[in-house]
Amino acid sequence: MKPISKNMLAAWLLCAASSAFAAPDAHSILKNSDQARGGGLQGIVWEIRLQSRDGAKMDEPQRIIVKAVDESSVAETQEPVRFKGSKLLQVERNMWLTKPGLSKPIPISPRQRMSGQASNGDIAATNYAGDYDAQMNATETLDSEPCYVLDLTAKHKRATYDKIRYWVSVKRGVGLKAEFYSVSGKLLKTARFEYDNAIEHDGRRIPFVSKMTIRDALIDAETTMEFGTVKVKKIAASEFDLGQMQ
Amino acid sequence: MARCWFFAALLLASTNVLADESGWRTSWDGTLYGYAGSMSPRGDSILNPGNRIARLVQRSDNLEARFNFKAESETMRVTARPIVALRDERNAFGGQTRHEAYLSQYQMRVRAADGWNVAVGREVMNWGAAQFRSPSSPFYFDNGRSDPMRELAGMDALKLTWTPDMRGSFNVARIVRSGYGAAQPDMWRDSWLAKLDLRGDEFAYGAVAVKAPNLPAFYGAHGQMALNDAWLLYGEAGSSARPTALQSPADAAQPFAVQTLSPRRTTVLVGATYTAEDGKSLSAEYLHESHGYRMAEISAYFARATASTLLAAQALGLSPRLLGRDYLHLVWQSNMMESDGYWRVMYTRNATDGSNELGAYGETTLTPQLSAFAMGAWNSGNARQELSSLFTRSVTLGLKVALP
Fold first, then answer.
1. Which end of chain A is least crowded, N or C, by CB within 10 Å?
2. Main-chain dihedrals φ then ψ at residue A111, nearest 5 degrees
3. Can you tell me the mean pLDDT for A72-95?
4. Residue A86: closest C-alpha in chain B
């Protein structure tokens, strides 16, 4: 066998070293960024204030309390007061609406989303790493912050969107911007995220989403969601049982 | 009624006390209703000639308050839904004013261990996706359709639930008695219930068995499947024996016969809902009710009822829960998630005798706390057809105010 020359050895070492210090893979970036939006945690309870605008018309503000674990969530309306106590339960791809006094829970189609631009997927904990295949295409600077640009493709039907382009901060590891696309590649919505909250996770303090602004790409409409009183805690499975919603 | 007020006062007091203790969250809300209803009984009704038998309310004015109280900690939840109502009801024979105060639902639920909950109280035990009727529930087959403004009152029960994960749960319950306003004698007093529910990626289904002391066991099942974002398929079924059955032989010359326990029969409902991009949905349901009559039996039923007021009263009082065997029910409705209003249009056809009912409900938001609503039902057919046998139309108009 021909001995390895010094030059070849140097080149091989350089390659190995560059691999070892390369940017993390797309899936790891995504999984890490999910935590700052409730994904991969044992459970999360948060209060969301929604305000939607459709053209010049401002919708009524909404306040909901969301309990979420993985793909399951319960969103209980607090305001407007005439809907207080209404609950939207999602378990996997199944959704139900319950209200005090209703004869029984009503199954809801994913198409019957909340008013405004927010879908049920937006108010639940984000699990992009579980719902989407990620591919890193580029790095870009967004508002003076270097970002990985990930192209996400839905793995299964329960994913809220078919395709997402996602800007994740290199330094902070949180998603800063998302573009949501239809199967045909048409841009539907754009979202921007802010992270002024913080939570304890694995013994360290990590940034947590505080505001999400969703802008419709097709019409002049916008929804702002402000996330407050975030609690990370284990949530019993019975909280997501339709028979125990009373 | 005293017990109702005691419980409500206790809960209200406890919400203030508990709010001061760490770990307890308390809340309350309510809705005030004011509505007026008008019904036009059929002048030539066979089952209720001149409205002398059923004495249906032709005009009503109602004031009603419905409250929700809740106090919860990490391991316990206490809820109550008291309802207070003042009703002024009139028909051609006179009028009366009625007061009502009752607990429609209440419950104390304790997390006994990881995955195990114990609940005691009054709970509406109704399930499945069907809108027209609920054949998989032995307690609420009617699903509130016969009096849409009146809420279903729960069953008084002690319930043990095992919820190992989000994909399933198993319940065992002792039904102490039917809740407020139940018909007597109470056929569900001291009965047992066992129920299994499972959920998967795109489906949810459940099975239930209920054994009452004086009835053969009830068996029910329900399921739903989301084909995609637009289509939902669902079904419900129940197998039961009724405590009484009015036999209506097809030969009208033969008399009615009252059976104290009906043979076991099966009721099946299948349905599909299509949701459009804007969230409006169209549901179609077909129900087959084996406890009902065939066409010849319906004809004989009305023929016998014409003979005398006594037979008409017997026919009306002991009639099957649905007269016919086959029904089509269509519902077209707005997006239920919209916050500024809601409407629905319903069409029901008794495919056995050809009678029809058209119903509609609409609600619009006037201010963030004030809404106006209207509801109507119109029947087409003659006095010898089920859906048009008692009244021709009914209209309700009202306002509701959200509290606090």
1. N
2. -75, -20
3. 88
4. B337
